[in-house]
Amino acid sequence: MPETTPAIIFAELAARRAALLARSVPDLFASDPERFERFHAGLDDLLYDFSKQRLDADAFAVLLRLAEAANVAAKRDAMFRGELVNTTERRAALHSALRNFSGEPVLVEGADVMPEVEAVRAKMLEFATDIREGRVRGALGQPMTDVVNIGIGGSDLGPAMAARALAPFGQANLRAHFVSNVDGADIADTLRGLDPARTLFIISSKTFTTQETMTNAQSARAWIVAALGEGAVPDHFAAVSTQLDKVAAFGVDHDRVFGFWDWVGGRYSIWSSIGLPLAIAVGAEAYLEFQRGGYEVDRHFREAPPERNIPLLMGLVSVWNRNLLGYASQAVIPYDQRLGRFPAYLQQLQMESNGKSVRRDGAPVERASGAIVWGEPGTNGQHAFFQLLHQGTEISPIDFLVAAVPTNADAHHHDLLVANCFAQGEALMRGRSRNEAEAITLKQGASAAEAARLAPHKSFSGSRPTSTLLYRQLDPKTLGRLIALYEHKVFVEAAIWDINPFDQWGVELGKELASRLAPIVADGQADLSALDRSTAGLIAHMRTLRG
Ligand code: F6P
To answer: Which residue's alpha carbon is at the smallest distance from atom 8 of ligand 1?
Structure first.
């Protein structure tokens, strides 16, 4: 038998594509009474329904063979084993070790990392508890009421998203704030109204060199010094970083520095001490529940059979939509106001991981890689961009996320929320033919001519692909599960495309050029002749505007 390769399986999938597209999804449901059974998977209370995707049983079977041909399981095991899967940086990718409750060791280059992981977590949770219980006090002896995290990218999005998602588990007398942008408006607007004597800053930066974070940290330091004096700095700052020497140089007290390791990627670092603001917001117990949710998904990803393995299925559906159906974007629409930052979080997770044009060996990728991820909570999106999703010429597959039970919210509101979520999935799948549209308009009293005129405008193609993640409640454990599901989904895509999802060289060039331009922008007299004509023209005009 010839060797099966992903390329051979992609060709097989491509051969099935036209026949599948000739059939509507409602038709696929009509001809397969088992369709929902076949195309959903569960993990305790959490259900992943992908039966509204443009797939049939045959194509699904071939997709499962694609996972085999791409060695997804072997690559997954190598990641969990701590192999140096981040090949360009020669690092392991072991965010799973941070939420490993198995009691088993995790080895990186022969050394068990678990004792250190557990020690840092214990120290961090103790600090979080001390803040919550008023034992951490400012220079004037007052307990902290406001915690400001200063970080960007993975050192911001995770804790900011999660603190908002789990707001009902927070403590009324303690507020979490997040400053990320180098735009001075961000820190200025955040600090306005805060009392320096009761404010604790956490500087979160894996490298402790990121321009935005260091600039904001210096401004925060100046704010504390102006109000309370230089001596107050150790009382009002903590830091999270892998670069302990740089943190010490900034003046953060050794007891308030929480380390992590180079084998934790920025966008996977919510599980490390980067999660400190979340632990402060929700408390140690809820934070551990959050981590247990991630661990549960790790076990599921490693143990569940392929046809019931949710991250594997999410990854395969995504590859099908991207490579076979050619959809360039992926919408994530949480029907959950508190998951308002989840799409932004997933943007970094997915686009920084799989926005690559070369394979692990440096050769060009053989097919389109990561889709553009975007989204906003429902129902708000319905009154904004859903028009395009229903009737536009671009098709964007959607993931809906929704809880069966509200957290601290009215049950009637929640019934309406859930009904809207399910209705959108149904409408996008079902569509409405021209005849149906015409009949409805006639029934509403329009003339035959008017009904015919409006029919093209009021009809919907349908068969627009959506998946739904439905869970009992948005609690810490569920949030942990959701994040880990998407992490592994991204991993599955990368395994199939044979790319390294753990590096991010694409952000470097912009950083370099910004550093080069910063002094030129600041100095009204600097020579512009070495710059390209457009950049020079913009700077010249900016100088005019600044007078
Ligand atoms: O923008 C690139 C990036 O390196 C992200 O991957 C990372 O999450 C972010 O910057 C922040 O980096 P750091 O935690 O080192 O400040």
So the answer is: 154
φ/ψ of 171, rounded to 5, equals -120, 130
Considering only CA atoms, which of 125, 126, 106 is closest in space to residue 116?
106
Candidate from 149, 161, 206, 271 with most ligand 1 atoms within 8 A of CB, to mutate: 206
pLDDT tier at 110, thresholds 50, 70, 90: very high
Quote the pLDDT of residue 2. 55
Instruction: Give the pLDDT band of residue 105 (cuts 50, 70, 90).
Output: very high
Q: At residue 421, what are phi and psi to the nearest 5 degrees?
A: -60, -50
Give just the sign of the alpha carbon dihedral 288, 294, 298, 303: positive
How far is the C-alpha of 398 from the C-alpha of 458, rounded, in Å?
22
The preferred substitution site among 89, 181, 207 for testing ligand 1, maximizing ligand atoms within 8 Å of CB, is 207
Can you read off the two tokens belonging to residue 433?
């033919």
**Please, which residues bridge with residue 239 across strands?**
203, 257
Pairing of strands 199-204, 398-403: unpaired
Q: Any idea of the CA torsion for 513, 518, 524, 525, to the nearest 10 degrees?
A: -60
Contacts of 464 (CB under 8 A, 6+ apart): 389, 390, 395, 397, 398, 428, 429, 431
Q: Is the pLDDT of residue 142 over 80?
A: yes
With beta carbons less than 8 A apart as the criterion, state whether 262 and 123 touch.
Answer: no
> Where would I find the beta strands (DSSP E) of 429-479?
466-471
Is the confidence at residue 297, as pLDDT, over 70? yes
DSSP class of 365 = P
Quickly count: other Cβ atoms within 10 Å of residue 313's Cβ. 27
CA-to-CA distance for 426 and 448, rounded, in angstroms? 28
- Residues 40-50 have pLDDT tens digits of 999 999 999 99
Measured by CA distance, the residue closest to atom 16 of ligand 1 is 205
